[in-house]
Specification:
50% helix; single chain; mainly alpha; Arc Repressor Mutant, subunit A; 7 helices
Amino acid sequence: MRLTTKGRFAVTAMVDLATRGGKGPVTLAGISERQNISLSYLEQLFGKLRRNNIVESVRGPGGGYYLARTADKISAAEIIQAVDEPLDATSCGGKGDCLCGKPCIAHDLWMGLNEKIFDYLESVNLQQLVDVHNKHNGDAVPVSLDNMSSAGTTA
């Protein structure tokens, strides 16, 4: 299983939004410039995030996006799922019909991996990602449980 750019860009954009939140709506053009993500791609992602009640928008001059809930109430898994990113390591979509209508020999392994991945992404909230980002002064840092615990947050 691999996470595509859709899920990675959605999480990246949401961390950017949350980092700048509270100071008024954040423009997609600003996120696009700071994160080097196409504006048209961000528009597609934020349409899905808005429809899933993760962000809200303000139209017109001075408009943009802001979080629909506090950052500690939005999980990485929720962001990824909102943009239609599959969190599935199976080849059958979890249906168990991988081999001629029956589960393949490794089906349970892949289903277990799905659970672990989902549980981890569900345990990480947007505020934790912002805290790690702020702790490292905006440097790109891989997110891990060690990074989050050292940032003084809990999973």
